[in-house]
Amino acid sequence: MKHATLAVVLVFLLLSCGTKKRTTNTKKASSQVVKSNKSGKDHTKYPMPEDSGKFIRYSTSSIEEYLVTYSEIAQFEMKAYGIPASITLAQGILESGYGMGALTLKTNNHFGIKCHNSWDGEFENHDDDEKGECFRKYNHPMYSFRDHSIFLSSRARYASLFDLRRDDYKGWAKGLKKAGYATDNKYPQKLISFIERYQLYKYDMEVLSQGYLVQAEPKKYNYKKHVVQKGDTLYSISRTYFISVDELMKLNDMNSSNLSVGQELRIKSERVK
C-alpha cells in the first residue's frame, strides 16, 4: 500500500490545482461524518479537491495502474458511505475499461452513470443502450467516485444493498444487477471475476480491520400510491419507479405477480433526507 498511497497523494496534489470552486457539482461532494466503532472518534470524509472548472483528461494504461491510482479513493468512499471498495473498483474497471473507455476519456465518468432527471451538471451524449444517451461529465475522476457513492446510497432501489455485510462482495454484485444497475445478465459474474482475480477484497479487509462503520441512519422513505391500470405488470411498474420486482412484492405483501385493474400498490420513493 506504500506505493498506492504515494500515487494517490500525487494524484491529490495534481487534482488540487486551481482555487475556483465548481458551479455545478460542488454541492454533490459536500463533506459528511462517519464514526469508527472502536475509537468512537469522528472521521471526516476526504476533502474533495477544488478545481479550476477546466476539464482535464485522465487515463490509466492497465488494471494494475488503475488500482494503484484509485484503490485508496475507493477505500475512502467505503469509510464514508459503506460501499465495499472491491465493488467500487470492480465497477470502475468494468464500466470505464480501466479508465481507457471512450466515454470515460471524454467525461471522467468511471461508472456509466447517466444524467437522469436530477442531474444539473455537465454532460456528454454517447451511444449506449440507445443512441445519443446523456451521461454525467466530471472535471476529474474523484467527482465520479463521490457521485457513484451518493448515487447508490441515496436511491431507494439500492437500499437493500446496505443491509448486506460490507465483506459480502458476491451479495453486492448480485444485488446491483437485481436492483437494475446494469442490463447485462452476466454483470455480477464479471464484477466477482475482477474482485477475485485481482484480490480486490483485500481493500475491504483493510478498511474493516480499522474498525470503520458507516454511521447508521434511520431508514425513512417517502411513499407514493400507484393504481394499477390495464396492461400494467409488476415489471413495467418496477421500471417506472426504479424499484425491483421483489421489493415491490415484499412492500405490498404479494405472494404472486397477479394484478387487477384498480388495485393500489404502495411504492417506495426517494429516501427522506
Q: In words, what does this structure look like?
A:
The protein is an alpha+beta fold. The chain folds into two domains: 2-213, Lysozyme; 221-271, Membrane-bound Lytic Murein Transglycosylase D, Chain A, CATH 3.10.350.10. Helices cover 40% and strands 12% of the residues. The strands form three sheets. A three-stranded antiparallel beta sheet has the order 2-1-5. A two-stranded antiparallel ribbon has the order 3-4. The longest helix is centred in the first third of the chain and has 19 residues, at 63-81. The radius of gyration is 19 Å and the shape is globular. Mean pLDDT is 78; it is low at 1-45.
Summed up, the domain count is 2
How many helices?
10
Q: For the largest beta sheet, what order do the strands appear in spatially?
A: 2-1-5
Structural class: alpha+beta
Beta-strand share of residues: 5-15%
